[in-house]
Design brief:
7-stranded parallel β-sheet, alpha/beta, 44% helix
């Protein structure tokens, strides 16, 4: 796992109790940063993630809150920034596929209004809510935002067409937030392909094998792969803003 020199830096990671979010938090904490991990208030993985980081002697605090609720999202970000003492990086990583198994792209009948509302509220609206709430603190520190998008946002077929649309929205929102918060704050996004994670959709063995076969680097991304890119965009790349960086082993080329 790559490490950086992040002594004195702080970061808030939404959806930080598992997968890409937790891995990014761990890299940052091991690199000397103080991190705040956001998770749903009733998610036991939050306490487990904090305990794991603290067992290594790392600086980590909890920032529970349901980002689908605008009031909770705003309060969570502002409290986390206060608890950290400053805010250098916001990672908008929280998201949901809304389903456990993929819905074929032609099966429009299975895409409900409720599914659309859930996915857009969590995957897209929470990015705006948290960015808006963090804007003042990030401007004060000359910080950055990194959003988790997906190659699905560029038109790849994902678990559902609603998920793909939500990630397309994140890519567009990243560009607009980069304009809105410049010059003090840089805003970028990462767009992973398939990721080896506990959050993953239950893909069939056939689809998994065919995806790997079609990927030039012949494997799925790991959380470490994506997390390292998030940390780089957050704390380096001082002239990079408004960009969505694809990290998919080359499958989209």
């Amino acid at each position: 796992m790559m490490t950086f020199n992040l002594a004195g830096k702080t970061a808030l990671i939404t959806g930080g109790a598992s997968g890409i979010g937790f891995t990014a938090a761990r890299i940052m904490a091991r690199s000397g940063a103080k991190v705040a991990i956001n998770y749903l208030p009733d998610d036991p993985r939050g306490a487990q993630a904090l305990a794991e980081l603290r067992a290594e002697g790392l600086e980590a605090i909890g920032a529970p809150g349901d980002l689908s609720d605008p009031v909770q999202a705003d309060a969570m970000v502002k409290q986390a920034a206060a608890d950290l003492g400053r805010l250098d990086l916001l990672v908008n990583n929280a998201g949901t596929p809304g389903v456990k198994k993929p819905i074929p792209v032609k099966d429009l009948e299975s895409i409900s209004e409720e599914l659309w509302q859930t996915i857009l509220n969590v995957n897209l609206m929470s990015v705006f809510r948290c960015s808006k709430a963090a804007a003042e603190s990030l401007k004060a520190s000359g910080g950055a935002i990194v959003n988790t998008a997906s190659i699905a946002g560029f038109g790849s077929i994902a678990s559902t067409i609603a998920y793909s649309a939500s990630k397309a929205g994140v890519i567009n929102l990243t560009k607009n937030l980069a304009h809105a918060l410049a010059p003090e704050v840089r805003v970028n996004a990462v767009a992973p392909g398939s990721v080896e994670s506990s959050w993953a959709i239950e893909w069939s063995d056939e689809r998994r094998d065919s995806t790997i076969a079609a990927t030039p680097l012949k494997r799925w991304c790991t959380p470490d792969d994506v997390a390292e890119l998030i940390v780089y965009l957050g704390f380096a790349g001082s002239m990079i803003t408004g960009q969505t960086v694809i990290i998919d082993g080359g499958i989209s080329i």
